[in-house]
């Protein structure tokens, strides 16, 4: 963040909400997408996912041909997946079907956005941005880590079989639905493409 925004964030009498107010005021006056990008990043830092998503949508709608703005949007989802994974690690237990569905959807949406970032970056050869590739790999790794906390996949061999065997779905995972399951199983091919 800029020194002024960082000083507001660090000030115990002000904090993130005051910094966000300043950035929001500047954005309202200027309509500069890069100010809104900083606001989205501030909300990511503060784990305010709703506001981070709002501003990430604004910036990518205003400048859909800027891969760096798509990276900020992807980081909204990556941050949420990391936060859920961190919570799982602290609690050391399995996650509910509702939580598993939510986090898997967040990860899959994040992967789509990072792929969009890659596409936009490849269309703009003057501003190559490799962050989308790294973002996709990181979300994939975090999702795989998270899946080890899902009831029915705690065993690494069971998780491997689920990911590799195109027809195998553990009975405990049928609640995920066919579309979501196929997207998870398709991650392997996507990672191979990213690594090329």
Structure commentary:
The protein is mainly alpha-helical and 196 residues long. Helices cover 74% and strands 0% of the residues. It has 10 helices and no strands. Helix 5 runs parallel beside helix 7. The chain starts with a helix and ends with a helix. The model has no long low-confidence stretch (mean pLDDT 93).
Blueprint of the fold:
Elements: H1 3-10, H2 16-30, H3 33-45, H4 49-62, H5 67-91, H6 97-123, H7 131-147, H8 156-164, H9 178-185, H10 187-195
Helix pairs in contact: 1-2, 2-3, 3-4, 3-5, 4-5, 5-6, 5-7, 6-7, 7-10
List keywords for this structure.
single chain; 196 residues; mainly alpha; 10 helices; 74% helix
């Amino acid at each position: 963040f800029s020194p002024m925004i960082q000083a507001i964030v660090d000030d115990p009498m002000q904090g993130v909400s005051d910094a966000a107010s300043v950035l929001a005021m500047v954005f309202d006056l200027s309509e500069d997408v890069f100010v809104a990008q900083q606001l989205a990043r501030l909300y990511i830092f503060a784990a305010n996912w709703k506001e981070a998503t709002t501003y990430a949508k604004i910036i990518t709608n205003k400048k859909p041909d800027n891969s760096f703005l798509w990276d900020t949007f992807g980081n909204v989802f990556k941050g949420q997946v990391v936060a859920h994974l961190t919570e799982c690690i602290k609690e050391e237990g399995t996650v509910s079907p509702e939580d598993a569905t939510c986090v898997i959807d967040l990860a899959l949406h994040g992967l789509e956005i990072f792929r969009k970032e890659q596409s936009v970056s490849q269309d703009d050869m003057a501003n190559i941005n490799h962050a989308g590739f790294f973002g996709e790999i990181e979300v994939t790794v975090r999702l795989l880590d998270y899946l080890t906390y899902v009831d029915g996949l705690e065993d690494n061999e069971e998780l491997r079989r689920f990911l590799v065997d195109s027809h195998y779905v553990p009975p405990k995972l049928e609640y995920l639905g066919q579309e979501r399951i196929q997207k998870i199983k398709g991650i392997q091919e996507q990672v191979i493409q990213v690594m090329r």
